[in-house]
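As a warm-up, study this chain.
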Amino acid sequence: MFKNTKVFSSFSTPDIQATQTFYGETLGIEVKKTPEGLELHVAGGGAPIFVYPSDDYTAPEHTVLNFLVEDIDKVVDALKEKGISMEQYDLDSIKTDEKGVARNDGTEMGPKAIAWLKDPAEHILALIQEK
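Now compare it with the structure written out below.
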């Protein structure tokens, strides 16, 4: 039924301006403001991610966006220079190092490295280095 249907992802935010600044200026993503909210135009040429305002916003507890990066340490360092903190986890299944990166030496399932950060609305974003 939906095999050839175009799709896009969306999420809400309590502060459109802070979201526009974070994604556009801090992360360097092309952001287009529309009457309904924001379009985040990411690489790959697919449909933009739509962000809309919410008056009764509650931050989700799951990752909303995953960014594939070639060198996670380089990206984490660049984000830290911009004042962005990586999330720290010390769980049975996820342990991050002092930089906020969970590393995989190949003995576990999953990517080589992953780190998490939050946007101004507390959405969880992941940085993933596959190789």
